Every structure is written in structure tokens, then in C-alpha cells.
Amino acid sequence: MNQIGRENRPSAKLRAMRGTFAALAARTLVVLLLVVASGCGTQEADVSVPTPAQARSELAGSPAALAGLHRQAAELLDGGLPAYRARLATLKGRPVVVNAWASWCGPCRFETPYFARTAVRFGRRVAFLGINAGDSGDKARSFLDRHWVPYPSYVDPHDEIAHEAGVRAGLPTTVFYGRDGQVAYVKQGQYRDEAALVADVKRYAGIS
Fold first, then answer.
1. How far is the C-alpha of 30 from the C-alpha of 20, rounded, in Å?
2. Rounded distance between C-alpha atoms, residue 186 and residue 203, angstroms
3. What's the Rg (C-alpha) of the chain?
4. Are 171 and 199 in contact, with CB atoms under 8 Å apart?
5. What is the pLDDT of residues 61-73, one digit of tens each?
6. What angle do CA 152, 156, 161 make, to 5 degrees?
7. pLDDT average, residue stretch 116-120
8. Which of 18, 72, 155, 177 could in theory staple to 96 by disulfide, Cβ–Cβ 3.0 to 4.6 A?
9. What whole-number distance in Å separates Cα of residue 123 and Cα of residue 27?
10. What's the confidence (pLDDT) of residue 29?
11. Taking CA 59 as the corner, what is the angle to CA 102 and CA 62, rounded to the nearest 5 degrees?
């Protein structure tokens, strides 16, 4: 081979790099296809959700601290980290489930119906709260108009509440507090089905 041919031929190192990049691209494509095929994160779960009237009926007679949450269903609460801490203090002695979400988060949209159903099912014994992390107020309100839940969410534009609660790997994240007010478990990522959420609520709330 002449000198020009040798200069134009890719080196072994370059060929290896191209092979690595091609393999990575192929794996990324497979992951994307699996996500699309499963539908997770692109839509909400196909389950019936209690209406506000049905939820009020099911949750009537709840203890005062829990009834206060139900009266603020689907509201966005200001006050930041101090208000969140104060609310947790009023709930000490009861298990608390906190879901961190945002309107731009596809997996959040997918799992929200599970939280709506589970919060009605266990809302007489377990406190449910939301953290609206790193979001726009208008978009968050629009999200809750379309995805009603029987509990309020604290507005957290700078992720201060989320950070203290233990959110480390993006949204959604669900934090379980024990009756002692300490974090018992942090679930990173979405719940793919209602049964998994119910199982964690039972496990970390210590209920049947």
C-alpha cells in the first residue's frame, strides 16, 4: 500500500472508538424502544380515580391532623421548608408518605393516579403529602387540575424541601416517614403499578 493509502486508513485506536460509540448508540436505542413499548412515562396509568366527592365520602371522619390534609386536597401550599417541617411536626406519631413530583415529569404523570387511589384507601391512617419540586406555579396548578389527589403539595421551586426529604436522583421520588418522624425509606423513580405502591405503604407505615 502506498503512503497516501496508509495515511487515509483509520488507525486501530480510531476503529475501536467507533465500535464503542456504535455499541453505545445501539444500547441507547434499545432502551428508548423499551420505554416507548411499555408506555411508562408517556401517559398516566389507565385506572379509575376517585372523584373529589367520592374521596370526601371515603375519608370523612378522619383524625383531625389527617382531615386537615384532606381539606387542602390538590392545593399548592407556600411557606417553603419551614412550613413543610412544621406540617411534619403536626403529623408525628403517624406514618407519612411524601411524593415529589413536577408537571414536566412524564413518570410523575403516569403514577399520580396510583397515589390518588392509595391516598383515599389509606388516608384515615396514613398522611399523604406532595412536594412540587423545581416547577412553574401555573403549570403545577394545571397539572393538579387534570390529576387531582386528595392531599396538598408544598411548592419547592429551589428543591430545598426535596433535598431535605432525601430526593437525590430526580423525579418522581417517594419518601416514607415512620411514626417517629424519621425517614424510613426513599423510593427513587416511578411506581410501575399500584400494587407496588400499596406494598410499600403497608411495609413502611406498619399497617395491613
1. 16
2. 13
3. 22
4. no
5. 999 999 999 999 9
6. 90
7. 98
8. 177
9. 42
10. 40
11. 105
Per the structure block, which three cell numbers stand in for 137? Answer: 406555579
Burial class from Cβ neighbours inside 10 Å (0-12, 13-18, 19+) for residue 151 reads: buried
In 126-172, DSSP assigns E strands to 127-133, 153-156
Give pLDDT, residue 33. Answer: 34
Residue 59: C-alpha distances to residues 47, 55, 71, 122, 147 (Å): 20, 6, 10, 9, 18
Q: How far is CA 14 from CA 2, 7, 9, 11, 132, in A?
A: 20, 13, 10, 5, 46
**Residue range 33-80, pLDDT digits in tens:** 333 333 344 577 889 999 999 999 999 999 999 999 999 999 999 999
Triad 203, 204, 206: Cα angle to 5°: 70
Contact 136, 74 (CB under 8 A): no
Average pLDDT of the segment spanning 174-188: 97
Q: Is residue 131 within 8 Å of residue 105, measured between CB atoms?
A: no
pTM: 0.80
